[in-house]
């Protein structure tokens, strides 16, 4: 269930491969005794009722969409883990006090609409009407994409979950980095998750003939954009009280002809840190630098904010529940998440926790992404124990 025309494992939201994967998930959920539904944001939800109806559900979730050229573990192991836990409860005839919801969140990865964590944003009321009206390069409007997978965008605001509607959200995820493997640990107790601020930068100059235009008469959008890209790297390499990363991953040069001075460059940047104030400070410095380059090179440079997710710290008592469960199952350590997750959005309405399993060579968002199956199994075991610990607490 992946796009054969793309490298690696590619399952972009709203595509036929994504919908094929969703149908398979639905079957797996039904066979595991879950009542299946799709919410207003298009999130696929499997539910098992608990014995104490007054308790709000425990939620396990992640995502099954991938980046372009992605791997086989990012996101999907968190959804499959939830279904496996549901299957075990069914097999052993166990009923939890809390109801249990297993969620495949719509479009967690940065999408062609310029937004990530679309489904979890919708679930917590953080997907604005402006965002719903955004279109991708094929002209698909986000709200129509959500309808394609069974969502009801007109009801997102009304049906959003509010603070207190979920007792606990837990996510099992691959680490997507090198720390667990380097430290020979089998499980990660996540202490916090970075905030991510994403911007689209447009640099407009004047296309012209590369042979007849003297160097001092050019308005070259690409050389101007290059100064900005290097400045972002320089700013993010400075030292701060918490780690920072900054990336330009998407870059379009037009008209992109060998003998044409570039007239228009559009690129997307993101800055991440566990401290959102550091991100804001870096973006202020970057905007000031952009203004200077615009003046010096007579270019028109615009910065448009695409999305902001807030950094979160996992509550100590949730860390303890997760650490106790991990400690029984294997060698674990505490670590922050440099990747963003649906947990960033759920943290706005509920206590959240995450468990990591190791990524071979720290690789992710590429076909080489790999986690040994016994590590995945260990992660499911730890997640199951954390759920039971919380359910009985
Ligand atoms: O980009 C991320 O941090 C995550 O993999 N969505
Ligand atoms: Mn990812
Ligand atoms: Mn992910
Ligand atoms: Mn995630």
CATH class of the largest domain: Alpha Beta
**Whole-number tally of structural domains:** 2
**CATH architectural label of the largest domain:** 3-Layer(aba) Sandwich
Shape annotation: globular
| Computed CA radius of gyration, to the nearest angstrom | 22 Å
* Uncertain stretches: none
Taking all residues together, what is the mean pLDDT? 97
**Strand segment count:** 15
Number of helices: 12
What about the largest sheet? 9 strands, mixed
CATH-defined fold name of the largest domain: Aminopeptidase
Ligands in the model, by name, code or SMILES, are: (2S)-amino(hydroxy)ethanoic acid, manganese (II) ion
Strand content: 15-25%
Helix content: 25-40%
In short:
With 393 residues, the chain is an alpha/beta fold.
Short descriptors:
single chain, 393 residues, alpha/beta, Aminopeptidase, Alpha-Beta Plaits, 2 domains, nine-stranded mixed sheet, four-stranded antiparallel sheet, 24% strand, globular, binds (2S)-amino(hydroxy)ethanoic acid, binds manganese (II) ion
Helix and strand arrangement:
Elements: H1 16-31, E1 35-38, E2 44-48, E3 58-63, H2 76-92, E4 100-105, H3 118-123, H4 129-132, H5 142-148, H6 156-159, E5 168-174, H7 179-182, E6 187-193, E7 195-204, E8 208-209, H8 221-237, E9 244-254, E10 260-261, E11 264-273, H9 276-297, E12 300-309, E13 312-313, H10 316-329, E14 332-337, H11 342-346, E15 352-357, H12 373-392
Helix pairs in contact: 1-2, 2-12, 8-9, 10-12
Bound molecules: (2S)-amino(hydroxy)ethanoic acid and manganese (II) ion (3 copies).
One manganese (II) ion binds at residues 62-63, 75, 108, 173, 341-342.
């Amino acid at each position: 269930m992946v796009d054969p025309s793309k490298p690696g494992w590619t399952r972009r939201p709203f595509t036929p491969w994504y919908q094929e994967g969703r149908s398979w998930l639905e079957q797996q959920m039904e066979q595991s005794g879950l009542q299946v539904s799709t919410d207003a944001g298009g999130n696929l939800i499997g539910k098992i009722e608990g014995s104490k109806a007054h308790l709000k559900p425990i939620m396990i979730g992640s995502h099954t969409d991938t980046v372009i050229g992605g791997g086989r573990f990012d996101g999907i192991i968190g959804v499959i883990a939830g279904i496996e836990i549901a299957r075990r409860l069914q097999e052993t005839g166990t009923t939890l006090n809390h109801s249990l919801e297993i969620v495949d969140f719509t479009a967690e990865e940065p999408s062609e609409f310029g937004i990530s964590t679309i489904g979890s944003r919708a679930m917590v009321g953080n997907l604005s009407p402006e965002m719903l009206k955004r279109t991708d390069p094929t002209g698909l409007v986000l709200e129509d994409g959500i309808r394609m997978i069974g969502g009801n965008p007109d009801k997102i605001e009304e049906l959003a979950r509010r603070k207190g509607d979920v007792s606990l959200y837990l996510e099992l995820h691959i680490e997507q980095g090198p720390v667990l493997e380097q430290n020979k640990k089998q499980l990660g107790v996540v202490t916090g998750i970075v905030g991510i601020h994403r911007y689209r930068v447009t640099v407009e100059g004047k296309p012209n003939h590369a042979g007849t235009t003297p160097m001092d008469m050019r308005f070259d959008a690409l050389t101007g954009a290059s100064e900005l890209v290097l400045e972002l790297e320089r700013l993010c390499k400075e030292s701060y009280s918490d780690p920072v990363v900054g990336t330009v991953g998407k870059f379009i040069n037009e008209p992109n002809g060998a003998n044409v001075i570039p007239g228009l460059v559009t690129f997307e940047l993101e800055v991440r840190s566990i401290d959102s104030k550091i991100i804001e400070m870096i973006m202020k410095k970057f905007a000031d630098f952009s203004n200077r380059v615009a003046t010096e090179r007579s270019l028109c440079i615009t910065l448009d904010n695409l999305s902001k997710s807030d950094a979160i710290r996992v509550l100590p008592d949730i860390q303890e529940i997760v650490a106790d469960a991990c400690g029984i199952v294997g060698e674990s350590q505490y670590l922050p998440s440099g990747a963003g997750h649906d947990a960033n959005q759920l943290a706005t309405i509920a206590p959240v926790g995450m468990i990591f399993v190791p990524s071979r060579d720290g690789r992710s968002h590429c076909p080489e992404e790999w986690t040994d199956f016994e590590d995945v199994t260990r992660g499911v075991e730890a997640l199951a124990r954390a759920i039971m610990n919380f359910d009985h607490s």
